[in-house]
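Run folding on both entries below.
>entry_1
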Amino acid sequence: MHCATNNAPLWSIPTFPHVHTDQALDLALERMGAASLELLPVVSRADMNKLEGVITLRDLLESFGVGPVPQPSVSARVAKVP
């Protein structure tokens, strides 16, 4: 992804939402919410052009113990015949 005005990578623009590996997960969640994003780039603090990975909203929610409610398996739903 590049900026339309100067062809720089989006994560190199200081105002583009991103996180660094040493930052807390709640900051990532806050930035996602503020920007209405479900994914944030994780960039190197030493080199903002170095993409180290991404973090998703699902990753964050699971780390806080919030996620989809597990559904019982089909075998657990089937009534047992005596």
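>entry_2
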Amino acid sequence: MTSSPLPGPNPPAEDGGQRSEDLFENAPVGLWEVDATGIIVAINQTLLRRIACTRADVVDRQTLETLVSPESTPTVQEVSERCRQDGRATGVMLKWRGEGDHSYWLGEVTATAVYDAKGQWIGWRGCVQVGPQATSEMERLLHERTLEAIERLASGVAHKFNNLLQVIQGYAELGSITLESSHPVHGNLGRIKEAAQRAAAIVQGLVTFSRRPIVRRRSLDLGMYITKLGSRLQRVVPPGIELHVKPTTQHVRVLADASSLEQAVIHLVMNACEAMPKGGTVALETDLEQDVTAGESGEPSRATYVCLSVSDTGVGIDPDLVGQIFEPFFTTKDTASGLGLAVVWGVVKQHEGRIEVLNRPGHGATFRIYLPVEDLVSPESGATNSP
């Protein structure tokens, strides 16, 4: 496919030329084009403003590598190679320069190859979201990918550690059987077995965090499910704390493992209770959400999710710690394992969902779990609607 270069600062005078230039310069995304040597030959004002540069500073003078952080330089080279080999590159995150010397922002890049009239590759062009909302979304995606990398590490560690624990438990059990109960070492062997059992529980948490396949997923009416779970939780919440259960009025069905989902909800509710030592309110709610994204064809793709939320009126979360709360072994409690929220994160990923935190320091926090809807039934008609 033959493409012409992106319009530069002085496009040829022709019908629609000024309109094309205006569209290019004022597009809501950053746009640029580089030649086969990597030199930037065109860049729009949207991106220039975001990186605090002028056109004279950049065009025909700099490569894209100079506009990103040092750690993103190899990624730019990978994008260029992918465009040359495959014609395009998508979903690539780069850390761009900001206004200050050490200021950076994250942006997801889509890039396509540029060819001359003979079909020869002469460079590539790209676009990047530059608004504050896009930056926040990129930070969320980066955090998600970081957790996924930790997840893969946790999976390997759990497997190897579990093998060692089996050896330790086996020899401790054998020693307990071999020695008389009056032997002075017998008590030590018992403590070794107890420690190994506690370690095994931690390994199990790592396994859950690392998203082992669920084999017990079945169709659940989520409203009925949390209503019944809420009834059981009413009996265990501490005095002075009110638990409000508010399911959506529509019958929403999801494919879920009831046991692991219950484990996640109970942990979130208990965490909420601990955040309110002087009492307060915990709300367990479900509601429907529409998520509209661009499909592979570029047409809007609409999906329905149910949001299961746990909110409290407690002290909230230290803003400096919000980005770490789902990491395994991270905890602010002296006696906790630090796997609770990591397990919650793993359970949500097992269900092909996502989890978000709305933090209100001094006023509480809300954990929102989004699960894909299997069936949606109108309470009036009983008819099933496709998501």
